[in-house]
């Protein structure tokens, strides 16, 4: 991943600018304040480096390098050299090997950021000391270590599966992941149910329109049933497969519904299919499921007979398909019921790994290459372009963010979600990874029954009921696990952030009826999710554990281990089912409050933590909170290997931080004048005004002995936290209303702190917020 160490707290003094416009124009690079870029002098001319000084505090400064592959082929590494004219002396560096000989500085790539595709970038930085003046180097040279043929592009299909009713049509779209050198023809072939046909049978993509989705229409005849696999192929591109299932027309009679229509199951493991009816039957219906042809190593071991009533017809019931230890190949299963048209689904048994198997490592971020979500990159690039080709904004798209699976539809993507499906995301990532440097993908599992029981903006789609739990398991977790299983031996690592805000609500909000009702479904659902995902060797589970402003009070922290132990100990693998925890997910609490380090310090006769902003919560920041929570969990039985991620995507609170204490005789004034957290109230959480992007994604930012494993950007900066009820719509959360208030439970009332003048639904792009986050980033972008 892109790593950047945190320099010591300091003032942002000035940007040092050397503009070499002609050279940059020749390279097609934008010139930004504070940057000097010089093209590579190596024969291949395939990389360039931009030098900037984002921070200078008079006796020292931070130097930043942005290395870009400006050639047409991927490179395997890079070396940057430049020479200072003054007394600049290297102190420490990150994201590369920094050395200094006399006045000449040499930087070589780290193991994780040397391989760059054409157009890709990496960053590195270092702290220096100096006396006198701090002039930028006159030139910077980037030399590539070598070049490699870029991996083949892929054909992206959205969605990857669809149902088409007899006599009607459905659609999917195709696009290319990278530009062809000439017009590329993609052909579409079909196998399986002949009642489904695709039109057109081929599409042409040009170097200019390669990424624009083109539509393929699937037409169903009046009598066919079953599944058709459409395969889209093109020269030099990884093929895409689309599974379409022809569904009988109801005409008042229910249809049997099956999800997913096909899946791959590894030897010795199980898969799950969800069965439901399209409409209410007039009386109870008994549905039978059986293997009717193909590989006998696959069998129905649970759910062979299901009963649907007029009340529960729409709730999917699970069927378990078990793979033996030696079988191989595909099998067809038939779902049937008296008076209804039968449907089929397919399963393929895959061999278990016997050599070169995926190893579950202690730190998934070490030695891995971050996968960039193309959906987020596209949003960032569009905004940067709209804002005059802002280099700072464009830089955000070069850092990894998590892929949020916050509804069932997000798994397959397409349609109303407008997202790339999980299958395609992992296909893209696998193509970018190697055995030596696997791709790292971050996903957020976030759709529990009764989700976010104490909030409104992020309430989920599944009710907190027994039927909802079944839906969560069979229609949400099982399809995710099925897709992930297909990539168990691929060169990727998958970090799964498990259900933000769920278990913290179990710890503190049992007085809320919605949370009390949801608690058993939270606990059972998360245990189920951990079991399914931990069974996949390259998946790493991190449980959300709120943040310092929630569970930081001693009474809340002491009650946390029991709740988390209940969930984890009920899994098949126990503590091994999780790899750690994550704090500050989609929140704003600073990683460190640099000047407020002693909660018991007396100011005006009162301890600092007695200030209204902290209300006797002694954990002022995430580093303090995570360290204390780590020790608390270890004391309660959790292994010391279970470390913490911190979401730093929006907790920077820049563009500057105070460096010296402002004295005050009143504790509230003292805290207000010296904290970097600009919220009116620590409980404010929705689209916070004056927030900024925080530390860049970093592996082991505080060293291997720290309980902090990595800084990550779980929440994509620029995506809204939620909207609020207005005269034009009733949905949303009043806590997102800039004119609204939050209460602290002790009679205190505070502004929500939300950005005024906007009303953007949760998850949608919020241009004004993105611009603000970039402007207030710390360290600066």
UniProtKB/TrEMBL annotation:
<feature type="active site" description="Proton donor">
    <location>
        <position position="501"/>
    </location>
</feature>
<keyword id="KW-1015">Disulfide bond</keyword>
<dbReference type="InterPro" id="IPR012291">
    <property type="entry name" value="CBM2_carb-bd_dom_sf"/>
</dbReference>
<comment type="similarity">
    <text>Belongs to the glycosyl hydrolase family 6.</text>
</comment>
<dbReference type="InterPro" id="IPR001524">
    <property type="entry name" value="Glyco_hydro_6_CS"/>
</dbReference>
<keyword id="KW-0378">Hydrolase</keyword>
<dbReference type="Pfam" id="PF00553">
    <property type="entry name" value="CBM_2"/>
</dbReference>
<dbReference type="Pfam" id="PF01341">
    <property type="entry name" value="Glyco_hydro_6"/>
</dbReference>
<feature type="active site">
    <location>
        <position position="452"/>
    </location>
</feature>
<dbReference type="GO" id="GO:0030245">
    <property type="term" value="P:cellulose catabolic process"/>
</dbReference>
<feature type="signal peptide">
    <location>
        <begin position="1"/>
        <end position="37"/>
    </location>
</feature>
<dbReference type="InterPro" id="IPR001919">
    <property type="entry name" value="CBD2"/>
</dbReference>
<dbReference type="GO" id="GO:0004553">
    <property type="term" value="F:hydrolase activity, hydrolyzing O-glycosyl compounds"/>
</dbReference>
<dbReference type="InterPro" id="IPR008965">
    <property type="entry name" value="CBM2/CBM3_carb-bd_dom_sf"/>
</dbReference>
<protein>
    <recommendedName>
        <fullName>Glucanase</fullName>
        <ecNumber>3.2.1.-</ecNumber>
    </recommendedName>
</protein>
<dbReference type="GO" id="GO:0030247">
    <property type="term" value="F:polysaccharide binding"/>
</dbReference>
<dbReference type="InterPro" id="IPR016288">
    <property type="entry name" value="Beta_cellobiohydrolase"/>
</dbReference>
<feature type="region of interest" description="Disordered">
    <location>
        <begin position="714"/>
        <end position="752"/>
    </location>
</feature>
<keyword id="KW-0136">Cellulose degradation</keyword>
<keyword id="KW-0119">Carbohydrate metabolism</keyword>
<keyword id="KW-0732">Signal</keyword>
<dbReference type="InterPro" id="IPR036434">
    <property type="entry name" value="Beta_cellobiohydrolase_sf"/>
</dbReference>
<keyword id="KW-0326">Glycosidase</keyword>
<feature type="domain" description="CBM2">
    <location>
        <begin position="40"/>
        <end position="145"/>
    </location>
</feature>
<keyword id="KW-0624">Polysaccharide degradation</keyword>
């Amino acid at each position: 991943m892109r790593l950047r160490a945190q320099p010591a707290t300091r003032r942002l003094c000035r940007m040092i600018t050397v503009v070499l416009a002609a050279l940059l124009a020749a390279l097609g690079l934008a010139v930004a304040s504070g940057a000097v870029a010089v093209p590579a002098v190596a024969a291949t001319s395939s990389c360039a480096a931009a030098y900037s000084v984002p921070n200078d505090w008079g006796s020292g400064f931070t130097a930043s390098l942005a290395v870009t592959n400006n050639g047409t082929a991927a490179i395997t590494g890079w070396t940057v050299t430049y020479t200072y004219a003054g007394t600049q002396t290297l102190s420490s560096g990150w994201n590369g090997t920094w050395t200094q000989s006399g006045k000449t500085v040499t930087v070589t790539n780290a193991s994780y950021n040397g391989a760059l595709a054409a157009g890709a970038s990496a960053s590195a930085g270092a702290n220096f000391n100096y006396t006198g003046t701090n002039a930028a180097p006159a030139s910077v040279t980037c030399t590539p270590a070598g070049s490699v043929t870029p991996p083949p592009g892929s054909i992206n299909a959205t969605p990857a599966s669809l149902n088409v009713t007899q006599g009607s049509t459905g659609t999917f779209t195709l696009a290319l992941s990278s530009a062809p050198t000439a017009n590329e023809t993609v052909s579409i072939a079909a196998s399986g149910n002949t009642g489904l046909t695709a039109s057109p049978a081929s599409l042409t993509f040009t170097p200019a329109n390669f990424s624009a989705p083109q539509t393929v229409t699937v037409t169903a005849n009046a009598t066919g049933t079953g599944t058709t696999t459409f395969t889209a192929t093109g020269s030099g591109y990884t093929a895409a497969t689309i599974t379409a299932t022809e569904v009988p027309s109801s005409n008042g009679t229910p249809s049997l519904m099956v999800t997913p229509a096909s899946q791959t199951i590894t030897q010795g493991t199980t898969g799950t299919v969800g069965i439901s009816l399209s409409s209410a039957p007039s009386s109870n219906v008994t549905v039978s499921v059986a293997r009717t042809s193909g590989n006998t190593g696959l069998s129905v071991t649970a759910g062979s007979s299901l009963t649907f009533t007029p009340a529960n017809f729409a709730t999917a019931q699970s069927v378990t398909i078990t793979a033996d230890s030696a079988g191989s190949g595909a099998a067809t299963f038939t779902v049937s019921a008296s008076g209804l048209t039968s449907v089929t689904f397919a399963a393929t048994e895959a061999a278990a790994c016997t050599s070169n198997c995926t190893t579950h490592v202690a730190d998934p971020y070490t030695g891995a290459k971050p996968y960039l979500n193309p959906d987020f990159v596209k949003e960032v690039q569009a905004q940067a372009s709209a804002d005059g080709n802002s280099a700072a904004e464009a830089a955000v798209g070069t850092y990894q963010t998590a892929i949020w699976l916050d509804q069932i539809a997000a798994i397959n993507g397409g349609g109303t979600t407008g997202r790339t499906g999980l299958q395609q995301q992992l296909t893209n990532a696998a193509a970018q990874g190697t055995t030596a440097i696997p791709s790292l993908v971050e996903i957020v599992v976030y759709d529990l029954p009764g989700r976010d029981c104490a909030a409104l903006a992020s309430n989920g789609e599944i009710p907190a009921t027994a039927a909802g739990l079944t839906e969560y398991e069979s229609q949400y977790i099982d399809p995710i696990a099925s897709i992930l299983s297909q990539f168990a031996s691929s060169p990727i690592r998958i970090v799964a952030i498990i259900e933000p805000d769920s278990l913290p609500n179990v710890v503190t909000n049992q007085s809320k009826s919605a949370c009390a009702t949801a608690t058993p479904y939270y606990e059972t659902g998360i245990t189920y999710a951990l079991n399914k995902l931990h069974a996949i060797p390259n998946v790493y589970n991190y449980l959300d554990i709120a943040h310092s402003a929630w569970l930081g009070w001693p009474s809340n922290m002491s009650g946390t281990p029991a709740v988390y132990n209940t969930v984890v100990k009920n899994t098949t693998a126990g503590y091994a089912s999780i790899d750690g925890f994550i704090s500050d997910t989609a929140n704003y609490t600073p990683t460190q409050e640099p000047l407020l380090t002693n909660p018991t310090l007396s100011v005006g006769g009162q301890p600092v933590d007695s200030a209204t902003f902290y209300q006797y919560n002694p954990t002022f920041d995430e580093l303090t909170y995570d360290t204390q929570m780590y020790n608390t969990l270890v004391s309660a039985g959790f292994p010391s290997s279970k470390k913490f991620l911190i979401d730093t995507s929006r907790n920077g609170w820049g563009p500057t931080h105070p460096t010296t204490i402002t004295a005050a005789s009143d504790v509230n004034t003292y805290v207000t004048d010296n904290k970097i957290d600009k919220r009116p109230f620590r409980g404010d959480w929705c689209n916070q005004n004056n927030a900024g992007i925080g530390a860049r994604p970093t592996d082991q930012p505080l060293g291997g002995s720290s309980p902090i494993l990595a800084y990550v950007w779980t929440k994509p900066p620029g995506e809204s936290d939620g909207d609020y009820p207005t005269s034009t719509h009733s949905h949303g959360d009043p806590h997102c209303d800039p004119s609204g208030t939050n209460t602290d439970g002790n009679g205190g009332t505070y502004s929500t702190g939300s950005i005024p003048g906007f009303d953007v639904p949760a998850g949608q792009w919020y241009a004004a917020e993105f611009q603000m986050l970039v402007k207030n980033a710390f360290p600066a972008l």
